[in-house]
Write a structure and sequence with these properties.
- The protein is mainly α.
- About 65% of the residues lie in helices and about 5% in strands.
- The protein has 11 helices and 4 strands; from the N terminus they run βαααββααααβαααα.
- Strands 1-4 form a two-stranded antiparallel sheet. The chain has a two-stranded antiparallel ribbon with strand order 2-3.
- Helix 1 runs parallel beside helix 5 and helix 4 packs antiparallel against helix 5.
- It starts with a strand and ends with a helix.
């Protein structure tokens, strides 16, 4: 006998994730509908702060390199943080991570309460964890992974140059980091879609299932959760130094507020999917 699970319409959730996708990959939309941006000489002007590092900024390629000096050449940003002392910029960097943690914790608890008190655990599993959330979020990250290669230069533009915030000295080129993060988004996004569709369709009763297949969903969700944390410095760089993707016009502060809310939402949903799907898969194996 065939056991099936239906994917709900979940119109509100779909709209939320579509908006999130648009914010995450805004350069693909804005470049198609906006007028040509101001010249780079107006957007990217050098400023100086006290530091032992200099970032030589190429106005044509929008790349930065660092060497020993008493000056730092950075991007002007709407936030003005790139003009602060380096120690203050470092504090903002770590403060951004602290803000994410403080915002994600109550959001995760809210989702937990919503699943138990409003939806009910059985329906939460069938309609959200098993199918809807993995499929929709998988699509978002799959598209993001494609963007890492289709618009690689745009993603490289927001990779922090050596010496940024006085602490950023990660080995490897911008192209390398854009490539490996794109690969993870591609494979894990596809993994979420596969596992979500598989659970939505159902399987034959008594069908022998591979234990590894049952854990694809929590593994992929966990990897995307960690990846989203690891690529956060690119978002912080956009906020603190005014970096933009491709030929976009400068982004005002409202964009960064929206981006922060979207990132908190994604991290909370990924954590919830990873945690709940792991316990469901583990419980199924014990049964």
């Amino acid at each position: 006998m065939m056991r099936r699970r239906c994917v709900p319409s979940a119109v509100s959730m779909l709209l939320l994730l579509i908006v999130s996708c648009c914010v995450q990959h805004h350069h693909l939309l804005i470049s198609a509908f906006t007028l040509p941006p101001p010249s780079l000489s107006r957007i990217h002007q050098p400023t100086t702060t006290c530091s032992g590092t200099v970032i030589n900024f190429d106005r044509t390629t929008k790349r930065g390199t660092a060497k020993s000096s008493s000056l730092v050449i950075q991007l002007l940003s709407p936030s003005g943080i790139d003009e602060w002392p380096i120690i203050s910029q470092t504090a903002v960097f770590f403060g951004a991570y602290a803000g994410l943690a403080l915002a994600c914790y109550p959001t995760i608890k809210l989702l937990e309460s919503f699943s138990q008190s409003v939806v009910g655990l059985e329906r939460w599993r069938i309609y959200m964890i098993d199918s809807t959330l993995p499929i929709l979020m998988g699509l978002v990250y799959l598209l993001g992974g494609i963007g890492h290669f289709a618009a690689a230069d745009s993603f490289q533009d927001i990779y922090p140059p050596m010496g940024t915030w006085g602490i950023w000295y990660l080995p490897g080129s911008a192209a390398f980091h854009v490539a490996w993060t794109g690969i993870i988004e591609l494979f894990c996004g596809a993994g979420l879609i596969f596992s979500g569709i598989r659970d939505a369709i159902g399987s034959e009763d008594g069908e022998e299932e591979n234990i590894l297949i049952n854990f694809i969903k929590p593994i992929c969700a966990s990897m995307l959760f960690l990846l989203t944390i690891l690529v956060t410095p690119a978002n912080i760089y956009m906020f603190t130094h005014g970096a933009v993707m491709g030929d976009m016009a400068p982004l005002d502060m409202s964009f960064h507020v929206i981006r922060f809310v979207v990132q908190v939402t994604f991290l909370s949903l990924l954590f919830t999917v990873a945690r709940d799907s792991f316990f469901y898969a583990w419980g199924d194996e014990l049964d």
